[in-house]
Amino acid sequence: MSAAGREEPCGPPGGCYAKRVLVTGGAGFIASHVIVSLVEDYPNYMIINLDKLDYCASLKNLEPVSNKRNYKFIQGDICDSHFVKLLFEMEKIDIVLHFAAQTHVDLSFVRAFEFTYVNVYGTHVLVSTAYEARVEKFIYVSTDEVYGGSLDQEFDESSPKQPTNPYASSKAAAECFVQSYWERYKFPVVITRSSNVYGPHQYPEKVIPKFISLLQHDRKCCIHGSGLQRRNFLYAADVVEAFLTVLKKGEPGEIYNIGTNFEMSVVQLAKELIQLIKETSSESETERWVDYVNDRPHNDMRYPMKSEKIHSLGWKPKVPWEEGIKKTVEWYRENFHNWKNAEKALEPFPVVPPFI
Ligand SMILES: NC(=O)c1ccc[n+]([C@@H]2O[C@H](COP(=O)([O-])OP(=O)(O)OC[C@H]3O[C@@H](n4cnc5c(N)ncnc54)[C@H](O)[C@@H]3O)[C@@H](O)[C@H]2O)c1
């Protein structure tokens, strides 16, 4: 187990930390934003970031807090049960926010078993160790993709899980393990299912940072299939607020959708980004920056979702698309090289057979 960052000598000035919070996957996109907020807003909490530093991770995402007294980074793998047990024993964890996962849908068609291993087995290791350590709250970060696609029917938290790709299937299976600890032991787990998130810190393999980075490198946006698939996009800062809300007010055993009504097709997204980055409103000039490539083996059309349950806890998204996307575009101009292998993320994805 290797730890970086400045060790706290004996807790914050004046006493011990009120809570010790383990955040997994904290060098990735969403959890890095959550950690920065937690470290800054909760100086009486110790925030421990467990991440194996996979290809999509960057410790630069944590630079604003890396020297803070109430922050600690530990490099390690959630699938290593001996290591995870030791970590819980040594760090005396009170709360877990579990984000670590394999997250790239395209890759999941090629490396399906790795997704099952990390997302299902890794989550099982974590929830079982957290249960044995008598953790007081375990938040499992899942996705709207567990519902599968729909054109009209809006999903709520009681809708059936019907995943259509290996990534979504592994997230849905992991949910079942987490939920069973509530059903069997009343171990206080909470599950969130979020729409697509965008903003700074996201490895440029995902659609928004990929299109932005391609355009900033004078390359075309590669659109899967027709590009008519519609996606809901939430800005990272809004999602951080959603997780802080669930941390404070989420009820044990409950599931919360974290969604937005804001939705656009992938073609529309590409066109908006071209207009913003290439500063053109000409249709023909816009078309020049678009390349239609083979579709995924399966590509859900929409994930319409109701989020009234988390609204009743006091959360709603606030950041308008126009503001969030401008900040994101600016960030990638300066920070694309935060990942050593960022160029690799821009390569076209190989056409693959469906997973078996
Ligand atoms: N990004 C989205 O739009 C979105 C939407 C809904 C749900 N989610 C969920 O949110 C969570 C975070 O997503 P993200 O986009 O920030 O992910 P990401 O891919 O940016 O980061 C994942 C992090 O997990 C770490 N990790 C992977 N395997 C690990 C292992 N075995 N042990 C320890 N660390 C490991 C990686 O190093 C990386 O830092 C995921 O669980 C994902 O399913 C994401």
UniProtKB/TrEMBL annotation:
<dbReference type="GO" id="GO:0009225">
    <property type="term" value="P:nucleotide-sugar metabolic process"/>
</dbReference>
<dbReference type="GO" id="GO:0008460">
    <property type="term" value="F:dTDP-glucose 4,6-dehydratase activity"/>
</dbReference>
<keyword id="KW-0456">Lyase</keyword>
<dbReference type="InterPro" id="IPR005888">
    <property type="entry name" value="dTDP_Gluc_deHydtase"/>
</dbReference>
<dbReference type="InterPro" id="IPR036291">
    <property type="entry name" value="NAD(P)-bd_dom_sf"/>
</dbReference>
<protein>
    <recommendedName>
        <fullName>dTDP-D-glucose 4,6-dehydratase</fullName>
        <ecNumber>4.2.1.46</ecNumber>
    </recommendedName>
</protein>
<dbReference type="InterPro" id="IPR016040">
    <property type="entry name" value="NAD(P)-bd_dom"/>
</dbReference>
<dbReference type="Pfam" id="PF16363">
    <property type="entry name" value="GDP_Man_Dehyd"/>
</dbReference>
<comment type="similarity">
    <text>Belongs to the NAD(P)-dependent epimerase/dehydratase family. dTDP-glucose dehydratase subfamily.</text>
</comment>
<keyword id="KW-0520">NAD</keyword>
<feature type="domain" description="NAD(P)-binding">
    <location>
        <begin position="22"/>
        <end position="328"/>
    </location>
</feature>
